[in-house]
Amino acid sequence: MINYDLKKIKAIVFDVDGVLSASTIQMDEKGDPLRTINIKDGYAIQLAVKHGLQLAIMTGGHNENIRSRYEYLGVKDVYISCSMKKRTWEEFLQKYDLKEDEIIYVGDDIPDYEVMKRAGCPCCPKDACVEIKEISTYISDCKGGHGVARDILEQVMKAQGKWVLNEKAFGW
């Protein structure tokens, strides 16, 4: 369980590679990455959006398919080609007038480190690098791409009384 006051969480930011997709990525014939997606992560993401949690994607990946996938699920803030996440983090906080202690950031590797140090509740998958695990409030039992988002979002929504069987839980 996440050892943090999840009732005050207003936003959750996810990295993609190694968090929402598996760490090993196949390449197509052009050399573009073919990322995995977890269906249960997708369900939890769209449900969290319906319940008013502010979700964002911050990835160094350059593929527009990332934007398409998460916008389809309702995520309004999808930052691709985001190699300097610290700048994007600042923009995101200002855009929604968020405080850092109201945000969970889920990352797995060194490019996430600076932002995770600032997030109120940094989280990571169980196969994150050592440096990220050391600064994480919560280490999921799931590997990247294998339900990390579902694990974290479900805990947040349960703590906030939003993980219930009502009309928002059914349908996409």
UniProtKB/TrEMBL annotation:
Assembly: Homotetramer.
Protein's recorded name: 3-deoxy-D-manno-octulosonate 8-phosphate phosphatase (KDO 8-P phosphatase)
Positions contributing to substrate binding: 17
Binding site for Mg(2+): 15, 108
A Gene Ontology molecular function term of the record: metal ion binding
Alphabetic keyword roster: Hydrolase, Magnesium, Metal-binding
UniProt cofactor(s): Mg(2+)
One Pfam family matching this protein: Hydrolase_3
The keyword NADP appears for this protein: no
Protein source organism: Prevotella scopos JCM 17725
Record InterPro entries: CMP-NeuNAc_synthase, HAD-like_sf, HAD-SF_hydro_IIIA, HAD_sf, KdsC_fam
Protein family per UniProt: Belongs to the KdsC family.
